[in-house]
Amino acid sequence: MAEILREDDRFWAVDKLFLAYVVFSSVLVVGWWNQVPDAAGLFTVHLAGAALLVFEVKCPNRTSWLFRNFYPLPYVAFCYKEMAVLIPAVRHTDADQWLANLDFRIWHANPTVWLERIQTPLLTEFVQTAYTLFIPAVLLVALLIWIKRPSREFQYYAFLITLGFLVSYLGYLIVPARGPRFLLKHLQHIPLQGLWLFKGMQGTLDRLESAHYDCFPSGHTLLTILAWWGSRFLGKKVFWAYLAYTPFLIFATVYCRYHYTVDVLAGAGLGFVLILATPAIYRKLSQGA
Question: In angstroms, rounded to a whole number, what is the distance separating the alpha carbons of residues 199 and 267?
């Protein structure tokens, strides 16, 4: 199988998805050239990333097989980081108040404030841990699929997760918001308090995410649902373990004040839409490969 993949010079579905996204984000850089910090540098990175992908596809070599299976990981991470630059340049307002108002209309309260009444250090420690394990949980499914059957299922899962991330980034651009931990901070009566690792986990995530408008839809909800669905490739035990983990992660997004409930609903809705739609999208983009 490895030798067959090394000789494959056709674009896979995930390759076409990334190249389309690079074109889209490059158009944003060019269109808002004077507003994007270091637009020339960012545009150059786009060209270099696309060129490297095309080279590895069309000129198979010793690195192509590993590159083509694993490049989505750094590419997705870069696309996330650049949103912190593109969104403030393209959008000059945020949707936080609008999202908070929607939440209030649904619940007749601010959910993050209301949840203070059940807040305890032990619960806070537990749900913050669930929230922090989001990326490891998504990647663990990929790793286990790779170990068990490193071909068709792995490539499909990589495409599904990549599509989920990129769709969530488009959502951030359309509805830019930073979350209730910033907008509603003045309404909270008590800070979140954990036991042992809470402050370290929260501080690390704040350094990684606090500059981003990454609230709507909830990418944590969307990608965790996709990871749960993808875990079915690994057998019933892993599938049920992810099914048990998913509700705790979703609860943590609101309890830990990262998301409005409408973000969670949007993320869950998109997750199930992608579960249903991705097989057809994948088949369409895989034609000729």
Answer: 26
For residue 163, count CB atoms less than 10 angstroms from its CB and return exposed for 0-12, middle for 13-18, buried for 19 or more: buried
CB atoms within 10 A of CB 43: 16
Asked if 115 and 188 touch (Cβ cutoff 8 Å), the reply is no
Domain boundaries, the chain: 1-90, 93-289
Q: Nearest 10 degrees: CA dihedral of 131, 133, 139, 145? A: -110
> What would the pLDDT profile of 222-259 be if each residue is shown by its tens digit?
999 999 999 998 889 999 999 999 999 999 999 999 99
DSSP-assigned letters across all residues of 8-51? --SPPHHHHHHHHHHHHHHHHHHHTTTTSTTHHHHHHHHHHHHH
CA pair distance 169, 176, nearest whole angstrom: 10
121, 194 in Cβ contact below 8 A?
A: yes
Is this prediction's pTM over 0.85? Answer: yes
Distance of alpha carbon 64 from its chain centroid, rounded?
25
